[in-house]
Write a structure and sequence with these properties.
Layout: E1 3-10, E2 12-14, H1 18-32, E3 39-41, H2 66-78, E4 81-90, E5 93-102, E6 105-111, H3 126-129, E7 146-148, H4 157-163, E8 169-173, H5 181-191, E9 195-198, E10 201-206, E11 209-212, E12 217-220, E13 226-229, E14 236-243
Parallel strand pairs: 1-3, 2-10, 3-4, 7-8, 8-9
Antiparallel strand pairs: 1-14, 4-5, 5-6, 9-12, 10-11, 12-13
Length: 244
């Protein structure tokens, strides 16, 4: 068994305020380097969020985005892995993707394939907003093999079943409207897979207007024991040791 140090960051954001949201997340990632993490985990698509019925204007190119290159620099400076969500421009629209840097190099990009259905709220219906990803990738790293399950993908047993026995740990970026820890704890107990998650906090838009988002970030071991968790709805960097 080896131990890795994870800094999971619950970032307070406002949908659509891309520059402000990114600057906030970049600063939090820089602050987290003081803890000498092996991995820094940020939420899913937190910069744009779900800010309209067309997300194409918010798409980014991985190699041209100054924000993503800032996370790449943080990864290099800290000698660590950084996993962050973003909206990836593709010819047919945008994908909901996560890029993983390690020591300044790209080791993988995962695009969300299980898209959230929402017939009542078109601005959150990912089936209409996003291009689905393809295969669920298993990434090799110096910490062991791992997978990235993005938000809704964590809520479907079939995705966890697909990677069971093939990974040492899971990274789970979220952009959902509650505390998602139960999904990671449930699958740790069910399959013995340790994981870390990071959700956004701040405000979200619902049918009744803006409201607080009680998101969290945290870590669970393979038995479902909570190693650390942030306070719901509070922007916070939580750091813990993930045994794998």
């Amino acid at each position: 068994m080896k131990n890795i140090t994870v800094a999971a960051i619950a970032v307070a954001t406002v949908d659509g305020m891309v520059d402000a949201n990114y600057q906030r997340a970049i600063r939090l990632a820089e602050i987290s380097l003081a803890e000498k993490p092996d991995i820094i985990l940020l939420p899913e698509a937190f910069a744009a969020g779900y800010c309209g019925d067309d997300l194409r204007p918010f798409g980014e190119n991985l190699h041209d985005s100054p924000y993503l290159q800032a996370f790449r620099r943080i990864s290099a400076d800290g000698g660590c892995m950084v996993a962050t969500g973003f909206l990836e421009t593709v010819p047919s629209g945008v994908k909901n993707s996560v890029v993983i840097f390690d020591r300044g190099e790209i080791i993988g990009v995962q695009a969300k394939r299980s898209l959230w259905p929402d017939d009542e709220r078109p601005y959150r219906d990912e089936r209409q907003l996003l291009v689905p990803g393809g295969n669920l990738e298993i990434f090799s790293s110096r910490f062991g093999d791992f997978a990235t399950l993005i938000c809704y993908e964590n809520m479907l047993d079939v995705n966890w079943d697909e990677i069971a026995g093939r990974v040492s740990f899971v990274l789970s970026p979220y952009n959902c409207e509650d505390d998602p820890s139960r999904h990671n704890i449930y699958n740790a107990i069910r399959l013995g897979i340790p994981s870390a998650w990071a959700n956004r906090t701040g405000t979200v838009y619902s049918s009744t207007g803006y409201r607080d988002n009680p998101g969290t970030a945290g870590i669970t071991d393979k038995k479902g024991n909570m190693i650390t968790i942030s306070k719901p709805g509070v922007e916070e960097i939580v750091v813990g040791t993930l045994p794998i």
